[in-house]
Structure formats: C-alpha cells, structure tokens
Amino acid sequence: MPQGADADQPGPRAGTLLAALGVIAFSLTFPATAWGLEGFGPWSLVAVRSVLAAVVAGGCLLTLRVPLPGRRHWAGLAVVAAGVVLGFPLLTTLALETSTTAHAAVVVGLLPLTTALCSALRVGTRPSRTFWAAASAGAVVVIAFTVQQSGGALSSADAYLFGALLVCAAGYTEGGRLARVMPGWQVIGWALVLCLPLTAPVAAIALSQEPVRLTAHSVAGLLWVAAGSQFLGLVVWYRGMAAIGIPKASQLQLAQPLLTLVWSVLLLGERLTPAAPLTAAAVLVCIAVTQRARG
C-alpha cells in the first residue's frame, strides 16, 4: 500500500492556519513544562510525556491499521525522533530547571531562521533575498527582546538551549520533508512509537529515582506537553509545513516567544515589560513579509 501525501492536501491559507495552530500549541510548552517540573523530575517529565504521547499515537495507528512506513523513511523518522521527541524536550527541560521561560524563549526566537537554513541544506529550498532579510530581521528582534527580558546575562542553561535549537531544527526539517509523502500525523506518530523501547524503561527508572508530587499544576503540565506539544501540535505543524513549505511555516514561529511570554504572565505570574507590544508589532511585520516573499 503506497504511502503518499494526503489526498486532501490543504491549500496555502489552510496550511498557514494549521501551522499557526501548531505554533500556539508549542507556545504553551515552556509554561506547561514549568508546571510539570513542580511535581516531576526532569528525566521523569520528559520520559513520561513521550510514553503518553506514544500510547496515543500508537493507538491511532493501530485503530486505523496504518501499515509500517517504507524502509526508505525510517532514517528520516529517526531524525524526527531524535530531534523533536527526545532532544528538544530533554534539553529544554534541563534548561528550565535553572532558566526562566523568557530566557528559554531565545531558542524559539532562533529556531525559525535555523529551520530555514536546515531546509535549504537538506531539502534544497531557495527562498528569496527578501525572505532571508525579513527572517533575519525577525530573529534579531526576538533575540534582542528575549535577551533583554533575561537581563542580558548568559546562563549555564545556554548550552542546553542552543543544543535544543540545532536538534529541533533538524527534526522539523526532516518531518516537513516526510509530511510530503505521508500524512503529517503519521510522521510524529511513528517517531513517537520508534522511541517507545527507550522512553518506557527510562520512565520507569526515572520515576523510581526522582521524587514525584502530584498537583493540579504538575498533572496539567504533563498532560499538555504529552498530548498538546508532543502529538497534536506536531500533527498540525507538519501538515501545515507540507502545505506551505518549510521556510514559510518556520517563520510563523517568530511569534512563538511572544506568545510564550504572554502565557508566562497569565500562568506563571511573570512580569512583561512595556517593550513587548513594540516587539510584537515588529515581529508581525517580519512574518507578513516572509509569507509574501517568493520561496
């Protein structure tokens, strides 16, 4: 049975909406992780979220009797698994033990440009100079804002954050490529299932070694990062990327750090500086330019 792309591939507008929904889901990841860390250790949180997401994804794959991917796709799925299922969640969770969500948002501010660069190298996309100029400007604006929010000082968490940036960009790029030849939900679904032989025993060991304190916040945070960030968010994200292209979809993530800061104020009680509205306006301009630029 061939595994082609979705027969009802969404158009550009629908693809943009789907990718935007993915960004909204991702913007809640850091605040939800901060909630989860109130009751779980970092290794427990990352492993359990992956196991829960894999159970949901595996159930869908079994119910719909989806055949195994072709052998030629397993290497790409391994990259997705290493980047977005294991690498990014683990590295950012470790960073958030000592970093604020505002500082961690630096990673997301750099991610759109890094993903576009990975796409150019891996997939051969060639966006226009206007696209690169707007994307770079947006990245600079977001970096300046988030660094200013964190006081301008680099922390010991930066190594985790920049490592997360690289592995996630690779995972996004490979996932967007695979979503052109198989449904996006199957891309993340198989990546999650592929990790299950590793994440399940790690979860059992971590839960036995790290203290667990179940609270409303910790449970809600765990459930969101498992179902929202790790599965549903990636489903719509990969489907959107397949429809509008990896570079354009990646630039929608320029809004993610600002959304994360808004959630941080509402959910974590962090304070937002007056610079936020000005930064939001500048970022929205950059997004508009990248979405209209050729490529």
TrEMBL record:
It is found in: Membrane. The keyword Signal does not apply. One of its GO terms (cellular component) is membrane. It holds the Pfam family EamA. Residues 15-142, 157-289 form the EamA domain. The chain crosses the membrane at residues 17-37, 43-62, 74-96, 102-123, 130-147, 159-175, 187-207, 219-240. Keywords: Membrane, Transmembrane, Transmembrane helix. Its main location: membrane. It comes from the Bacteria. It is a multi-pass membrane protein. The keyword Cytoplasm does not apply. Belongs to the EamA transporter family. This is Membrane protein. It comes from Streptomyces aurantiacus.
